[in-house]
Amino acid sequence: MAGQSQRMNVVPTVTVLAVIKARLIGATRGHALLKKKSDALTVQFRQILKKIVATKESMGTIMKSSAFALTEAKYVAGENIKHVVLENVQSASVKVRSRQENVAGVKLPRFEHFSEGETKNDLTGLARGGQQVQACRGAYVKAIEVLVELASLQTSFLTLDVAIKTTNRRVNALESVVKPKLENTITYIKGELDELEREDFFRLKKIQAYKKREIENKLKAARQLANEQVSSQTGISTKSSSNMLSAATQKDEDIIF
């Protein structure tokens, strides 16, 4: 029963054997391709993981410097700097756009930052206030760039994680379920076909032996009838007439057998 559960319920014929062999070839090729895909995704996954670790390590320093730059700007230009900056800003100078990158058939989202137009350098402020505001802006632009890169890496990381798990499940299914079942089915069909061939050979031998016995019985009956006719016509004994006819019928027997 364990062997039966590991094979398909099919009719053991030559046509079905050819179909199962073709399916096994397809499953083998698919397993090889999925294995290569899994390896390629795993390599990309590890590279992205290294980039995420490096980006997170640098993000702490950048966020610290940007917060300190904001404190300096507030100290120099005053606490009401927020309203002054908002009045001078017409549109966002840093924007984010997305695109897709194909890695071994998996589409990974990528986020990129870009700038449109130029920002005025003379925002407002007395003494060093304008310079401090520009320094604060530059620090936060760097922080935004790091955050956008980190968001792109983490999104790609999660997408690759799901794709790798799905691919590995398919590889394991082909390797542990589909291919063994097809191989066991092929073995079963070959065994059944060999058994049918042996049965046909045995059947043919039996038929030949039966036909041979029938022919021998007919020849024996014909010789006996001929001996009786010769004996009745010539008056010779049945034994003598049998010896005379045996030589005549020997050629016929050689031709038949």
UniProtKB/TrEMBL annotation:
Keywords recorded for this protein, A-Z: Ion transport, Transport
Native species: Daucus carota subsp. sativus (Carrot)
Annotated Low complexity bias: 232-242
Pfam families in alphabetical order: ATP-synt_D
Annotated spans, Disordered: 232-257
The keyword Protein biosynthesis belongs to this UniProt entry's keyword annotation: no
Family statement drawn from the similarity comment of this UniProt entry: Belongs to the V-ATPase D subunit family.
Top-level taxon: Eukaryota
Gene Ontology MF terms in the entry: proton-transporting ATPase activity, rotational mechanism
Name of the protein in question: V-type proton ATPase subunit D
Keyword Transport: yes
Signal peptide location: none
Gene3D superfamilies in the record: 1.10.287.3240
